[in-house]
Design a protein that fits this description.
The chain has 14 helices and 20 strands. With about 450 residues, it is an alpha/beta fold.
Length: about 450
């Protein structure tokens, strides 16, 4: 695989502004401080939680804190964390001065001395990224994994790393310039409405995701989702999908107990894949295509697929009693993820669904058919509960219920569910109206299910 070239010497001695002092901002500050940069630290918060950590290794930094316009005189470049919109008032003076607005991912690509695998998409990024890293590690390759998952990318840099695997958001990709190095492999897993509060339309969001392909010598795409197909010429292109694959691609054949995943001449029974749900078979196929192209061996791939059961809060079975299964997919923070969860674990109207939160400007109308097919009763929470209810009223759902919070929602859903059915948390929304994040939302769901189980109720 192509190794991204190093440009470390070119970054020395600059005056860099870092905008946003969360996980990414800390990793950027640590990296640039080690390069000898003069740092200006900028955040909308007056007391950013991680500021003391940065000052412990960069005590001479200039501080510009608070939610107001900042002055960028004397700044050479601006590194913008993914949580800060490029049209933020914090950056208005930087835009006026036409300063380069860059990202930690661009700095990382310029510095990495080993192949970098970039994985993006609306859904399943964390699962596929983790699978690919495990497959490469099982193959004996020293592999570092992070980006939008776990550690900030710049914190991963090390001389002995042989592969980097990065989960990437559209916010991280949108600010890559033509000066950034190329990913050795780029993949867009899937595309559906998300972050419409940050983009003017779906096309702009999709274009940001497609920047992962760039000049990558290997491009992996989802042939079940034509919007993910790369447009650039000159790359080796590999696809994955639910149908039978062409030579070099990954796909499936057969049905039921005889169904197999086909890749590189291998025929792996789907029964040998530990993750559950149709969507997770697609995740397995995507990871296989990426990891095989990045140098993982066949035995490592099959061993990981046989042992990896999935990540927390992603279609995670957390309880089963009185014939009812409780599944936590709190990571379903957009409509596409909820549709995938319903298709993956649901049957014909056998789901009591808990949904709702902040919709981020998404079009909920595409939920109508999946709700009609899989959901018997619906329990709604959060800011956009009414918007989802409007769509659900056109679907064949027995009843729509509104709950005051997660504990109330689980109590109601458990009382509605019949033996053989599934209570599924797949909100189709972000969580920040009620929780600190999707993890906290999922944890509260799990706690409520555990409390029900301890009381011997369903």
């Amino acid at each position: 695989m192509t190794v991204a070239g190093s440009n470390r010497a070119a970054t020395r001695g600059m005056h860099s502004a870092i905008v946003g002092l969360g996980v990414t901002g800390v990793s950027v500050a640590r990296y640039l401080a080690a390069q000898g940069d003069e740092l200006t630290l900028i955040d909308a918060a007056s007391e950013p939680a991680r500021l003391p950590e940065i000052l412990s290794f960069a005590p001479d930094s200039t501080l510009m804190l608070g939610d107001n316009t900042k002055e960028f005189a004397g700044i050479d470049r601006v590194v913008v964390s993914p949580g800060v919109p490029l049209n933020s008032c914090l950056l208005s003076d930087a835009r006026r001065r036409e300063l380069p607005l860059t990202s930690d991912i661009e700095l990382f690509l310029q510095a990495a001395n080993a192949p970098v695998i970039g994985i993006t998409g609306t859904n399943a990024k964390s699962t596929v990224t983790t699978l690919v890293a495990h497959m490469l590690q099982r193959s004996g390759l020293r592999t570092a994994v992070g980006g939008n998952l776990g550690e900030g990318a710049l914190s991963l840099l090390a001389e002995d790393v042989q592969r980097y695997v990065l989960e990437l958001s559209s916010f991280q990709l949108e600010r890559l310039s033509s000066q950034a190095g190329a990913f050795a492999c780029g993949c867009v897993l899937n595309l559906s409405d998300d972050h419409m509060d940050r983009y003017p339309d779906f096309a702009a969001y999709a274009a940001a995701k497609h920047r992962v392909y760039g000049d990558a010598p290997l491009a992996v795409w989802n042939r079940d989702d034509p919007m993910t197909k790369p447009a650039q010429a000159g790359a080796t292109v590999v696809s994955f999908g639910g149908d039978g694959p062409d030579t070099g691609d990954v796909g499936f054949a057969g049905s039921g107990e005889s169904r197999v995943m086909i890749f590189s001449g291998e025929r792996l029974p789907t029964s040998a894949i530990a993750m559950v749900g149709e969507h997770n078979l697609m995740n397995a196929a995507a990871a296989t295509a990426i990891a095989h192209g990045a140098g993982a061996d066949t035995r490592a791939i099959t061993d990981v697929l046989a042992s990896f059961v999935g990540l927390p809060h992603r279609c995670q079975l957390v309880g089963s009693f009185d014939g009812v299964r409780f599944v936590n997919d709190s990571k379903a923070t957009n409509v596409g993820a909820t549709i995938a969860a319903l298709a993956g674990v649901g049957g014909d109207q056998n789901v009591v669904l808990i949904a709702g939160g902040i919709g981020k400007g998404a079009d909920f109308s595409v939920l109508r058919e999946p709700l009609a097919r899989h959901v018997r009763e619906l329990v709604l929470i959060g800011a956009d509960a009414d918007a989802i209810a409007e769509v659900a009223r056109d679907a064949r759902i027995e009843a729509i219920h509104f709950a005051d919070g997660m504990a109330d929602a689980v109590e109601r859903a458990a009382g509605l569910a019949r033996s053989g059915e599934i209570v599924l948390l797949a909100p189709a929304c972000a969580s920040f109206d009620m929780f600190s994040g999707f993890e906290a939302r999922g944890d509260e769901f799990v706690a409520a299910v555990d409390a029900l189980g301890q009381r011997g109720r369903a």
